[in-house]
Amino acid sequence: MTPMLAGIDLVFNLVVFLLMLRFFMQFAGISARNQMAGAIYQATSFVDVFNSIFPPLARGRFCTAALILTLLAYLIEASMLRGLGAVSFSGIELLIRAIFDVCLVLISSCKYIIIASVVVSWIIMFTGRMMPITALIYELAEPILAPFRKISPNLGAIDISPIFAFFALYILEWIVMFIKAQLV
Description:
Layout lengths: L2 H25 L7 H9 L2 H6 L12 H20 L7 H37 L4 H20 L9 H23 L1
């Protein structure tokens, strides 16, 4: 990969990372008044402009604008790479790939949030201290893990819901990748 292509990839991955953080913070109902979340809401304030075009769903918790902007970021990146001759997909193939890439980045983001919450729980257990970033990570992970806590057995102090969540996310990721491979 040339330095120019690596630079394009880095910029678009950063944009997608910020958009996914914004999506999950809104999904978790984290307020912009939160010390740690405020910076991310500020960095992604351009999403607010698109909220009037693509209004949030589920009482403001499902930020459609962030997802559509993520899709647009993938389309722009693929178009730039196509223009530079790095990829040779047709327009419809670019759209299909971008849609599946958004699905896969959502799944990957869920997995990273779960990993972060598990690591943070260990750090809190050993240090006995809670910091603002740990509270933010817990708030991000809660909507993902809550459905799995309902079906996982109660083992007291041991929470095995991340295991169930990972299992479900890996199955979902495999299904999405299988369908993507069949279509493109």
